[in-house]
Amino acid sequence: MKPHVRVLGIDDSPFSFSDSKVAVVGVVMRLSNYVEGVMHSRLTRDGEDGNDVLAKMINSSRYKDQVRLVMLDGVAMGGFNVIDIEELRNETGLPVASVTRDPPDFKKIEGALRRHFPDWERRLRIITRTQLFQVNTGHKPLHVAVAGIDENEAADLIRNSIVRGALPEPIRIAHLIARAIEKGESKGDA
């Protein structure tokens, strides 16, 4: 891997169901552990603006041309504001990976979507469209979906972004910052 490879990790903040907007934070990191920049925006809780908000945040960043991979903590932010990783890849020109620690329970997700959204089928289609694969981390494996990048290259970038545990460091730091934005202080539960 080339020296000074940069990745962008994005996570959302905690929220309550009375919140209309949810903070999203991006952390640009030079692998393996040097933070170069932080960005943030807000998207609508359970809305449909996630792709637009993330694309605008990424495309307006001075780091965009240096980023080799955008890593999202899951495919939905702010509740069920579902991110279409293929569309985000097209809108930014950057490879995108959705990273989760636990395999998704698609039956449970479908049930929640059916109960709360008239467009549940569209949201479920986006969530299930990309094939998940496992990335072994030396700890618990991660479950990853990618757009615009080879699985092996994505797995290599993800593994090289892990400092401790199994979660990529840019996502972990984005989580801590997003929580601090909303709660006043971060908590080590990333």
Q: Could you give the distance between the termini?
A: 27 Å
* CATH class categorisation: Alpha Beta
What is the percent of helical residues?
Answer: 25-40%
The proportion of residues in beta strands is: 25-35%
Structure annotation, total helices: 6
Query: How would the global form be characterised?
Result: globular
Radius of gyration: 15 Å
CATH third-level topology: archaeoglobus fulgidus dsm 4304 fold
CATH architecture: 2-Layer Sandwich
Order of helices and strands: EEEHEEEHEHHEEHH
Runs with pLDDT <50, length 5+? none
CATH homologous group name: archaeoglobus fulgidus dsm 4304 superfamily
Structural category is alpha+beta
Number of self-contained structural domains: 1
Largest sheet: 7 strands, mixed
Number of strands: 9
Mean pLDDT: 92
Largest beta sheet: what is the strand line-up? Answer: 3-2-1-4-7-9-8
Model description:
This protein is an alpha+beta fold and 190 residues long. It has one domain (6-182): archaeoglobus fulgidus dsm 4304 superfamily (archaeoglobus fulgidus dsm 4304 fold). It has six helices and nine strands. It has helices at 50-59, 85-92, 106-116, 120-129, 151-160, 169-183, and strands spanning 6-12, 21-30, 34-44, 67-73, 76-77, 81-82, 96-100, 133-135, 142-147. β2 (21-30) and β3 form a beta hairpin. α1 packs parallel to α2 and α3 runs antiparallel to α4. The longest helix has 15 residues, at 169-183. The radius of gyration is 15 Å and the shape is globular. The model has no long low-confidence stretch (mean pLDDT 92).
